[in-house]
Amino acid sequence: MDSLNELMMSRAPTAHRPLLGLTLLVVEDSRFACEAMRLLCMRSGARIRRADSLEHARRHLSVYRPSVILVDVGLPDGSGLDLIGTLTGLSPRIEVILGISGDTAVEPDVMAAGADGFIAKPIQNLSAFQSAILRHLPAERQPAGPRPVTEEDISPDPIAYQDDLAHISQVLENSVSGDEIDYVTQFLGGVARSAHDHDLDQAVTRLANRRTTGASIKPEMAALSEMVQMRIAAGGLL
């Protein structure tokens, strides 16, 4: 354990920094979502580490044990449900295991895998983020006294949104398979909702619906790719 981590772990939580003493590992491939989580952790007093895939998460977990882990269900190299299932069987167990997704329909699967809870993306409200973690911690890990509850939302750097668009643009440039299309809709849908990009979100939904029905998806794929390129050229939201 490094000196910074030792210092963080030794500090007791406060009403204004209720997550002091905690280290969070966020397993999330979206740069925009990770930036939101970084800001939330910074405001809450928690230390954050990030992994953008199952492979990188396992590397992190091989060298240290976080207090809390948040696992996105849809990852580029597999399902976060598999990682959650593995983590719930470890001893000693990570204190809090949470599944996250922009698709609320996966919540039952997250809970069945053994997670302590589920958080729907976008995750941008400070009080809601803190509460989602604190409710699963024992009394000795809670801040003493009342905690102020606000409706404050954080605003991630739009450059992170551009990074996500550039990433998915590279995927769309190739001939994508069925599993890759599912990844595109999961990833881009979550990013669009986090950025409150309603037009892009609707385009993703149309593509997902066409794929579900087995209809041709070529027009929707072309339209989605064009929308992504327009946003990259414009530097973000249109």
If you had to describe this structure to a student in words, what would you say it looks like?
With 238 residues, this protein is an alpha/beta fold. It folds into two domains: 3-141, Response regulator (Rossmann fold), CATH 3.40.50; 159-234, no CATH class. It is built from ten helices and seven strands. It has helices at residues 3-10, 31-44, 54-63, 80-88, 107-112, 126-134, 158-173, 178-194, 198-213, 218-234, and strands at residues 23-27, 47-51, 68-72, 74-75, 78-79, 96-101, 117-120.
Order the strands across the largest sheet as they lie in space: 2-1-3-6-7
CA radius of gyration:
18 Å
Number of strands: 7
Main β sheet profile:
5 strands, parallel
CATH homologous superfamily grouping of the largest domain: Response regulator
In CATH, the architecture of the largest domain is 3-Layer(aba) Sandwich
How many independent structural domains?
2
Between the first and last Cα atoms, what is the distance in angstroms?
45 Å
Could you name the ranges where pLDDT drops below 50 across 5 or more consecutive residues? 3-8
H-E string? HEHEHEEEHEHEHHHHH
Structural class determined from secondary elements: alpha/beta
Rounded average pLDDT: 89
